[in-house]
Amino acid sequence: MRHYIHQHPEISEKEFETTQFLKENIEALGITIIDKGLKTGFIAEIGSGNPIIALRADIDALPIQEKNDLPYASQNGAMHACGHDFHQTSLLGAAEKLKEIEEQLKGTVRLTFQPAEEVSKGAYHVIEQGGLEGVSAIIGYHNNPHLKPGQIGLRSKAIMAAVEKFTVTVEGVSGHAARPEFGVDTVLAITTMVNNLQAIVSRMTSPFEPTVLSVTHIDVGSTWNVLPQSGYFEGTIRSFDPQGRQTLRERFERIVTASAEQFQAKVSIKWDQTPTVTYNDETLTPLVFEHSKNFAQVIEIPPLTGGEDFAAYQEQIPGVFALIGSNGDEGAPDLHHDTFMVKDQALETAVTYYVENAKLLLNYFDMK
């Protein structure tokens, strides 16, 4: 099943065939699909009554051309280079096992097959459509190729970073490259901004506060002898302190504005909707940590600078987000690489993580 999903990836908000495939398999198990108005992705429920515990798996792929030599490699220009094929397959497996013990469940398990995680929109779509209504807690995970099958990485509080995506557009005055005094040099303004922004991490942020600022794309000019009129650059900031997140934005805007004024250029800054810190509930996470030792090697891990829109759920209700080993080989390609690979044997731990901890939290909230 994972091989089929891997061979037919679909990018964010285009997961139509993926959604249909998942629905058919859920319906074949006799599980009720709940219509929440999602264009892609869907919600289903096993059991009845309260409490309600949600299990979430993301289903979208990336616009990457796969370079793995596999009989089930993608051929359509997209790729499950982040392992979301692994995630959704494990939730299907958990659904089958939970359905078998439906009469024993002390409440309802809500299965959330979430679209558009890669563009940080899917969790917000689910919330807007009422996907968290009545839910007491939510469980999720991401595979980690640097952990071995059978290993789970977990920690209370911050486990993944808050994400900022910025786009800075700079407007100068075009002119001849031989007479820059008659123009406003957009290239110089942009490169100065990029250099000055590095001081935010190196000189304005405590070394005890993990922070990353990366400019990843610059687009300015089209030929060698013309000062371009405009250009832009974009990138990301990663941080773990909710209060410090706003301070970072303010410092960013101050530096960009001052650099633009230095060259008499005009500038605008756009911040996209992006997730905050993936923050594991301090009461439920230790329970999941200890319970998961019954079927896996559980490791307390440091926070990761990657981001997750699972954080949007955790802003609304208690949530636990883990990292589950999916490869573990030395030199295994990281997430978003065109030769990224997961091992099928890792699915057993992922399925069990969902099933056992859904039962654990149903019992926990039933007794409250």
Describe it.
With 368 residues, the chain is an alpha/beta fold. The strands form 4 sheets. An 8-stranded mixed sheet has the order 1-2-4-3-5-16-6-15, sandwiched between helices. The chain has a 4-stranded antiparallel sheet with strand order 10-12-8-13, covered by helices on one side. Strand 3, helix 3 and strand 4 form a beta-alpha-beta unit. It is elongated, with a radius of gyration of 23 Å. It starts with a helix and ends with a helix. The mean pLDDT is 97.
> Which strands sit side by side, in order, in the main sheet?
1-2-4-3-5-16-6-15
Strand runs, count:
16
How much helical structure, as a percent, in the residues? Answer: 25-40%
Estimate the mean pLDDT confidence.
97
Task: Estimate the strand proportion.
Answer: 25-35%
| Rg, alpha carbons | 23 Å
Low-confidence stretches are none
Ends distance: 38 Å
Q: How many H/I helices?
A: 10
Major sheet: 8 strands, mixed
Question: What coarse outline follows from CA principal-axis ratios?
Answer: elongated
Protein structure class: alpha/beta
N to C succession of SSEs: HHEEEHEHEEEEEHHEEEHEEHEHEH
Task: Write out key terms for the chains shown.
single chain; 368 residues; alpha/beta; 8-stranded mixed sheet; 4-stranded antiparallel sheet; 10 helices; 16 strands; 26% strand
